[in-house]
Amino acid sequence: MTVKNHLKKVREDRMMSKAELARKAGLSVLTIDRIEKGFPCRHSTKRKILEALEIPLENRQLVFPTQEEEDDD
Questions:
Q1: How far is 29 from 71, CA to CA, in rounded Å?
Q2: Backbone dihedral region of 61: left (phi > 0), alpha (psi from -120 to 50 degrees) or beta?
Q3: How far is CA 15 from the centre of its chain?
């Protein structure tokens, strides 16, 4: 099962490498790579990524759209 997200685009827009994001989020580069490829992850992992990208939880849909928002695309 793949999960649509905008992590790669947001990370690249901020000129961050996977390694830098992984370090700031306290995750592995492999985890970041898997999420960017559409593998699901825990809410706690999403929270760590959002904090590392300095994106407020209220704006989480910028990186992790909800199912309803995916259906609109």
A1: 29
A2: alpha
A3: 14
CATH number for position 32: 1.10.260.40
CA dihedral 8, 43, 20, 2 (to 10 degrees): -30
pLDDT digits (tens, 9 = 90+) for 26-70: 999 999 999 999 999 999 999 999 999 999 999 999 999 985 444
Helices and strands in the chain: count of H runs, count of E runs = 5, 0
How many CA atoms lie within 13 Å of 34's alpha carbon, on the beta-carbon side?
Answer: 12
Burial environment of residue 44 by CB neighbours within 10 A (0 to 12, 13 to 18, 19 or more): exposed
Task: Tell me, yes or no, whether 64 lies in a domain.
Answer: yes
